[in-house]
Amino acid sequence: MATHKALVLEAFSTPLVLKDVPTPSVTPGSALVAPLYTVIPHNLPMMLSGALNDFLPTFPPYIPGDSCVARILTLPADATALSIGSLVWVDPMIRGRDNPHTEIIRGFDGGRNATSQALMKNVWKDGTYTEKLLVPLEGLFKIPEDWVRSKSEGGKGFEIQDFALVGYSLLAIGGLATAGVGAGDTVIIAPATGKYSRAMVHVALAMGCKVVAAGRSPEKLKALQKYPGAKERLSTVVLTGDANGDAKALQNAASGRGADLFVDYSPSTMYEEPPYLMAGIKALRRGGEYLLLGGAITDLKIPYTEIILRELRIRGKFMWEREHVELLIRLIDTGSLKIGAEAGAQDRLVTFRMDELEAALKTEPGWTHGEEGLLSPNVE
Prior knowledge:
Mean pLDDT: 94
Largest sheet: 7 strands, mixed
CATH architecture of the largest domain: Alpha-Beta Complex
Helix content: 10-25%
Number of strands: 17
């Protein structure tokens, strides 16, 4: 039996074990890839401990890791557009082929219902912290080779590892596209200085929106001015916690008429109602939308009558759809969305081999604010 190396979590609150595991066989509708770079999320230690399992269920023993940039090793006979050796981005979103409402994030989230959890347990339990990974064909998106060639050689000059980070931008694209906003629309983002919310600022600017970034730290808000388009279309507001005062400041920053969209990126560490909820609702124009994209584990108290009279919408969006990945690729291809060094405010990348990860997780935190941890199961 063919084997390869992978990092396995045998049980919650135990160290990751680098061990030999069976290499899966390629069947129609799937491909075998070699992950090159995959993100190490900052909440990985909590996930491995089981502390998040009520919210993000996983099922040890399993291999962690969600999305990655990879090379194709083996293809099935029904592959029509991909080639062995192609550079690809691997989508962690896996949906039931006979029921798209059955959905999981491989190696990260087994879903909210029994059918989703069965899909993870029985088929797609393992993630990207491995030398070889079986992937649904529809979850592979080709990255043109000239994108990772130097500009002097006629390429775009991107680094391969830049594509390991596009999940941050995809969540933003999924939210903005679902809300139907784009060039000329005004988007308020709060809090706007986290990893995902900074990506929303970057993507909204790339899509032509006027952006109001809100948060508590003037220094962190100032750093957002490095994004392309910020000089022309980015305003910042320091939140005080006073709903009426913050709402007025947000409205003024949104040209006085209110925003088309308020994006709430409340983090998973928030266990109470977001302090900017009412300010965000008040800062919307008539017919505007309040979009929930964060991970807060809390309930919301909303102004029932005001929402009716002002015809406001409150919506949640989970991850993204295939067309949003295709939109991301077009935005990068046309130069509308900058990635890597050209993005202006990207974190410094810190890369670990699989045999280094367990030690890195014990260094508290292993990498600092302003850095992004990547795992490299295969070196290219």
